[in-house]
Amino acid sequence: MNKTIEIIGAPSAFGQRKLGVNMGPDAMRYAGLIERLESIGHTVIDQGNVESPAIDMKKYKSEQGGLRNLEEVTTFCESLCEKVDGVVQKGNYPVVIGGDHSIAMGTISGIAKHYKNLGVIWYDAHGDLNIDETSPSGNIHGMPLRALIGDGHENLINIGGYKNKVKIENIVLIGMRDLDEGEKAYIKEVGIKTYTMADIDRLGMGTVIEETLAYLDKCDGIHLSLDVDALDPVETPGTGTTVPGGITYRESHFALELLNDSDKITSFEIVEVNPLIDIYNKTAEQAVGLVGSFFGEKLL
């Protein structure tokens, strides 16, 4: 079924320490994102990029205590939340292209107010479940999912003017292979549904997606948040927090094809493409290919 897709660029680099991820949205556009979606048959509206606070290089490069760039992350996510909210209100399909993964707080805050029981698939090498007390780095891109649950700094949990956007029982983590000690303890304590790389190897990606959709069947909408570092860095080298032993490109295509076939995913974001540390824009091109599979591109 053809959709009216609205693309929102979210060029934030404030959630981590490597410049270049703010160029990710335009790298994906350059790699043919809009044309790819239109060739499948969708109507595409490109809203351009959300305005970002100016980057103060002196501050950006400094060792900050606590939550790094808290003010900038909060300001950016509030603006993104408003943009996404507007797309959902119109009945169009929101696709957010990042930018580091802290932007998920803005994306999901704009979406969750339209659903009573939103589900979230977090396709990532990392859980992003830290709070400032457990974070080894203070990088907010390692905290968005925890903030969306309702834990963390007041600025982060209140984006969009409300708290508790996602229930713990409505979250599925896929691709986990690098978790901080505090995240491991939290996942075990609260019982978040988690598929590590060992689970994917044992079960196969088809079973993982089938079980995920069955688990989230109670939800009235499902958001897919895809970090390109979920894939093995051989496949997506242009991302800031690489971890060997990740999901293959083919497995990811298969996962996204299955999610598209289910017709249950109601919003989508793809994050952490960094062309400054990429090889000939390979990661952006791979990301665009994944988006194509998610929106129904088929070989035959």
UniProtKB/TrEMBL annotation:
GO terms for cellular component: cytoplasm. Mn(2+) 1 binds at residues 101, 128, 227, 229. It catalyses: L-arginine + H2O = urea + L-ornithine. Its cofactor is Mn(2+). GO terms for biological process: arginine metabolic process; urea cycle. Mn(2+) 2 binds at residues 124, 126. This is Arginase. The gene is rocF.
